[in-house]
Design goal:
Layout (H helix, E strand, L loop, with lengths): L2 H4 L26 E8 L5 E8 L12 E5 L6 H4 L6 H5 L4 E5 L13 H5 L4 H16 L6 E6 L1 H12 L4 E7 L14 E7 L25 H11 L6 E5 L2 E6 L8 E6 L8 E2 L2 E2 H9 L11
Parallel strand pairs: 3-4, 3-5, 5-6, 6-7, 7-10
Antiparallel strand pairs: 1-2, 2-4, 8-9, 9-10, 11-12
């Protein structure tokens, strides 16, 4: 990822963001990709940013995995697209990547957040429709769908694991938690990444600060992951520590899947790109994908 995109990592849960332009070209932080907006009409009309390999037609992606990247509250697709360099997967011809806009910059993850929750928006149905649309337009493999979300987007990943997970082969929540309180329905390779100094979506039972009082007492991240591991019939976990990381891993869970909780020392409520830890690399590892190269092909 270009260093110009790293500043966007500092965008927090409630950042207002910038107004997304309607232009056909969006800078996603990597070269060698083609970007275009697509629209999904149901349940509420909104758009998503489709990212594919610039060397092939968007409709010539037969059999590639599909990766959905969900933004945080107050953000949008243009803010989220450069974070984590997921577009490198599209550039290298390894995946089709789609970064959708939430409803008024929010996702209805259950008890949270924003207009999406207040208006009872059915974001599970929206993500289902989006997956169908992208598969239709690109030929991506509907059996190889992966989802990653930051903050409110990470909360939405948990909800989708409960209601739409038959479509998922891999999932990742970054600074999110299971605000819905639901139980996942199908074992899926899953990683939760959180910072020890995140006081917006805390690892333990700590009240969110006044600046995000609307969240109230969010379920502790550790509790959400432990319950997910229980739902996936995982064995007792093993924990390793290599600075700045404490990693707790449950494996093999039902269906040979893995559940992992990465706690990054000193990390606050931002995308995890810090010395000694690159969040996207760890997500790829849990999904069983080769390491990605954010700087060039290969």
């Amino acid at each position: 990822m270009r260093r110009g995109g790293v500043a966007l990592v500092l965008v927090g849960l409630l950042v207002a963001g910038v107004v997304a332009s309607c232009g056909a070209r969006v800078d996603v932080g990597v070269d060698g990709v083609s970007t275009r907006w697509i629209r999904v009409a149901a349940p509420q009309p909104r758009r998503a940013l489709l990212v594919t390999d610039a060397d092939r037609s968007p409709s010539d992606s037969d059999g590639l995995p599909l990766v959905l990247v969900l933004h945080g509250l107050g953000q949008n697709a243009e803010i989220m697209a450069p974070l984590g360099a997921f577009s490198s997967l599209a550039r290298d011809g390894r995946a089709v990547v789609v970064v959708p806009d939430g409803w008024h910059r929010s996702w209805n993850a259950g008890r949270c957040c924003g207009d999406a929750a207040a208006e009872g928006v059915d974001d599970v149905a929206y993500l289902d429709a989006l997956i169908d649309e992208v598969v239709d337009q690109t030929g991506a493999d509907p059996r190889q769908v992966h989802m990653v979300g930051f903050s409110n987007g990470g909360m939405m990943v948990y909800r989708y694991l409960c209601e739409g997970a038959t479509r998922l082969r891999g999932a990742a929540s970054i600074a999110g938690t299971n605000v819905d309180g639901c139980t996942p329905t199908r074992p899926t390779d899953f990683i939760q990444i959180s910072g020890t100094d995140d006081d917006v979506v805390p690892l333990g039972p700590t009240q969110s600060p006044a600046s995000v009082a609307a969240l109230g007492q969010v379920p502790p991240v550790r509790t959400s992951v432990e319950r997910l591991a229980e739902a996936f019939s995982c064995p007792p976990p093993e924990t390793t520590q290599v600075a700045p990381l404490t990693s707790t891993r449950w494996a093999p869970c039902a269906g040979g899947t893995t559940v992992r909780l990465d706690e990054v020392t000193g990390l606050v409520h931002i995308y995890p790109i810090v010395p000694g830890y690159q969040g996207t690399d760890q997500i790829m590892a849990v999904w069983g994908w080769p390491p990605f190269d954010p700087t060039g092909r290969g």
